[in-house]
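Hi U.,

Before I forget, here's the chain from the pilot set. I'm dumping it here mostly so it's searchable later in email.
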Amino acid sequence: MPDATVNTPILVADVGGTNLNLALLLPEGRRFRVLRKARFRTQEERSLVEPIRRFLAEDPFLRPERACLSGAGPVVDGRIHLTNAPWDIDGPALERALGLPVRVVNDFTALSAGTLQLDLADPTQVTPLPHGDGSLPQPDPGGPVLVVGAGTGLGVGFVVRTPAGPSAFPSEGGHIGLPVFDEDTLALWRHLAEGLPGPPGAEMAVSGPGLARIFRFLVDTRRTACTPEGAAILDLPESVQPAAISALAGSDPACGRAMAIFVDLYARVCAELGAAFLPSGGLFLAGGIAAKNADHFLQERRFMARFERNYRDHLDRLARATPVFLARDYDLSLHGAAQAWSMP
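Structure:
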């Protein structure tokens, strides 16, 4: 990328199926400062270039020299085909329309790169999760970083450090097999496997829609009692069911049990990915579900208790040595897109 743009504003975007977040960031040392940001409704826009033009027109004297745009999906020839939006992210077309260099990255490339911008001592940005013995291991500044985020789907990304600098990558780790560790999760696995051509993947339960599937499984199989308020959740639109389950988790037995199973499964997914990536640089739980339900992860150290429970002693030791953080910075993907601009 051109060196002349290093200290000039960068336009960044986080394109989701519901919201499109745009921002102008300015480098400040090793971090970035937000100059301006705005949110648009993805489904109400006819293309990506139109909201960008409106955003930039609000301050014509503050012009970016480059752009890095992130979205869910693989990047092919500078483009991402979006399955949850009425248009695609087309980097070459945006370069022509905006007259500036454009880089397009996967959303978990941006999130993973964003972890390098976090101030781990700032409680508004991260919450460290204490291990079973109360310890809080410190990240190895040269070690790999693993990012796992449950939202509409289950995303996984990672950062590796090289002599040329850090590089962030997406993965398809959200589609590893759904973990099984007790009678409830075995029954859930069998329930979700019905009609599938292969075994169910983790995303089927560890995601917003997955939380709703766990709840429906508990209600349909009558494994847990349910209040009338809880039962009414099944009549709600699927998109709002996860938030409703979370809101009633403290008062409805089925909602509470669904959230507990969700956290346990999230922990086991992270444990299995941790055995593959060995993230001595830190494991970060990203995405809105974890941040909005932090109490369920921290209560009685539920997440860490399941994360540290493995079938071999050496895996337990590796888990106990892994620094784990719950990411709370909702601008993480924007800062990460800016960081990703200069990554190899």
